[in-house]
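Reopening this one. Same input as before:
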Amino acid sequence: MLPLILDKTQDTPGIILDAAQKHFWFTGTSIPENTHKFFDPVFVWIENYLKEPNQETIVNFKMTYFNTSSTKSLLDIMILFKELAKNEKSLIINWYFPKEDEDMYEAGLGFSKMVRFPFNFINY
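Same output, byte for byte:
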């Protein structure tokens, strides 16, 4: 399966989805002009990955800011990845946040509760 790599810009997050290298990263700011258009290839890639996933998948979120429409897309991404746990595959979700950014920590807690899956919280 070919990796999906989207370079980080001022308005869009950097995304690395590489099953062979076991790299699953979402980083930076997410305020794309058209959220659906930006995230559509991500959803397609994850849906294909779920057909033949690795035994263990570690998904890392190191977001600095995201808008309301990105919140929904990020939540949907997490829900898709949670399918792995239902299929007896190992899933770990790491939520990185700056030590001084309580809002980003709270956002991670909120996602974890909505997805009903425990996250690892890692401050930096």
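So the earlier flakiness isn't reproducible anymore. For the record, The beta strands are 4-6, 14-18, 23-30, 56-66, 90-97, 120-123.
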